[in-house]
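Annotated sample (chain length 282).
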Amino acid sequence: MASYNKAYRSVTEWLTPNMSACLSGHLRPNYLCHRFRIVLCGIALTYGGFAQAQPTAPVSPRAKDFPEEIAKSFAALFSTANLRPLVFGSLATGVAIIPEQNVETYFRDHPEKLESVTELGEIMGNEYILSPIVGGLFVAGRLGGDQRFQSMTYSLTEGFLINGAVTASIKYAVGRTRPDGSDNLSFPSGHTSTSFMWATVLSRTYGPKAGIPAYIAASYVGVTRLEENAHHLTDVVAGTAIGYIVGRTVTRRRRTSREPRVTWKIAPTRGGFAASLSFRGP
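Output written by the structure step:
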């Protein structure tokens, strides 16, 4: 990245006197000057095409503002920004009805396939086990760490509480019986929604390096719920959508405004016009 910054700064230093002279009319509009203008336009268009606005470091609100922030995040769940993932998740849940019976039959007839590793999935998505972990991370984020870690722990705590409330509300409203008949709180899968909320927060805070392993782990939790005969396939798919939407919402509200890397201005002068091109490093 340092070599990249040095390269475009060198180009800028070389272009500045020639660009100013040519574009302000101090040089005659000969063939070379026209060529120079064309090259400048090409540089501006090409670089501008790749220099999209980049997100700045996420913001971490104060701990005393947590009740207000969680209320705002809950309200943001119902914004139009979540319409696309909501529609996609609903469609995916509907499609999952088709193979649901076959999937349940397979896991019921082959309980030994994942029996040795399902206990870990139970722990990874269990809200009672995760509650003190989330609380500890929130305190750790308030006491220290960089801004990104503080924002992640804040968003994670918000997401954990909101996801739990949303999932539980739907469970009691729907009242679907579990495949094993243990209770009527099958839809949606709370383990899955919690796991995918964690994965989404990590992915949107730290990028693919943290997101890919987190999503793999979340998918594993969802599969173990099927193997345990604790959920139907549609429960797991719906839990995936809920967890993603909640994680997406709380992290979106943590982000600050975006600033362009390249800005340019054109202003008239007595001899013609002048242009300025400024670069902001990544």
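Annotation: Confidence is low (pLDDT under 50) at residues 1-56, 256-262.
Annotation: Residues 2-51+262-279 form one domain.
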